[in-house]
Amino acid sequence: MGKVLQVENLHKLFTLHEFDGKRIIGCDSVSFSVEPGEFVGVRGKSGSGKSTMLKCLYRTYIPTSGEIWFASAQFGQIDLSSATERQISTIRRSEIGYVSQFLNVLPRVTAQQVVVNSLVETGADIETAQQKAASILAYFQIPADLWDAYPQNFSGGEKLRLNLAKEMVKQPRLLLLDEPTASLDNASKELVKDILYELKRSGTSMVGIFHDLDFMEQTVDTHYRMAEGVLGGVTV
């Protein structure tokens, strides 16, 4: 079985036009790979380029140069750095999940509907989506009386748990995690840890960026250190 993700010489340069075209390197010559069911963790100081790299993988940012080869079930081997917007949109719906520290959902959509919609996008029928949504919301200990509430009013921890729920419930081929435990208490971290193990066993590959080094070391298979946009220091 081949690699799920192969990143080759990824480079992202930002040009600040309001500052006479000043250029800032987001990430530089980043190369690594991810096997099926492998969890790769990346640590580093704020501003080291971790989030830039992750957003390039999700194609929130278009890389300046380099290649991001993804083993897609729908398109075969596809370079995410040059894929069309339509291809990226299709892959995001069912094959690549992204959990950020911040919940970004449509207004006036309930917490349960957020998760249901996430599943329906993958092709699940409504009844199955509703059952799985209820199950994962209960797993993440989001109180049942909040399921029909709007997430904009949730606490930071509740928003993050909902964000995790709506992406993890899809069991994507690749899951990208941006500080997945940033605002969670220890009990919630244990829930996240257990479901990450379950996803790995089911074959989901993951790339996560962390400041919580204790959590990272307990969950990842391989980890790197990032500094000034450069990835290095692999530890298995």
From TrEMBL:
GO terms for molecular function: lyase activity. InterPro entries: AAA+_ATPase (IPR003593), ABC_transporter-like_ATP-bd (IPR003439), P-loop_NTPase (IPR027417). It comes from the Bacteria. SUPFAM superfamilies: P-loop containing nucleoside triphosphate hydrolases (SSF52540). The keyword ATP-binding applies. Belongs to the ABC transporter superfamily. Keywords: ATP-binding, Lyase, Nucleotide-binding. It holds the Pfam family ABC_tran. This is Phosphonate C-P lyase system protein PhnL. PROSITE patterns: ABC_TRANSPORTER_2. The keyword Phosphoprotein does not apply. Residues 5-236 form the ABC transporter domain.
